[in-house]
TrEMBL record:
It is a multi-pass membrane protein. Residues 57-85 are annotated as: Disordered. Residues 12-55 form the Cardiolipin synthase N-terminal domain. This is Cardiolipin synthase N-terminal domain-containing protein. Pfam families: PLDc_N. GO terms for cellular component: plasma membrane. The chain crosses the membrane at residues 6-24, 36-54. It is found in: Cell membrane. Keywords: Cell membrane, Membrane, Transmembrane, Transmembrane helix.
């Protein structure tokens, strides 16, 4: 059973890489054409390492930054609440 765990991990990473290559738009792929990356993704360890290090461009944050939520305060820390007492 212990011998199967590394094999399961390598196969799972290969499947993840294959689906990630297929789902990634062509304009976010570097170095090689998409069909070549699909073939490289089928090579279990090497394909995964190459795709994660060289093949995919880093993601950019989409849209404007989200505003921070206000910090929750207790009623005794809220000046508006204390004014009403």
């Amino acid at each position: 059973m212990a011998k199967a765990i590394p094999i399961i991990i390598v196969v799972a990473l290969a499947v993840y890489t294959l689906f990630d290559v297929i789902a990634t738009p062509r304009d976010r792929i570097r170095a090689l054409p998409k069909p070549v990356w699909v073939l490289l993704a089928l090579v279990p360890a090497l394909g995964v390492l190459l795709w994660l290090t060289v093949g995919k461009m880093p993601t950019k944050p989409s849209g404007p930054p989200r505003p921070q939520r206000p910090i929750a305060r207790g009623p005794d820390d809220d000046p508006d609440f204390l004014r009403g007492l």
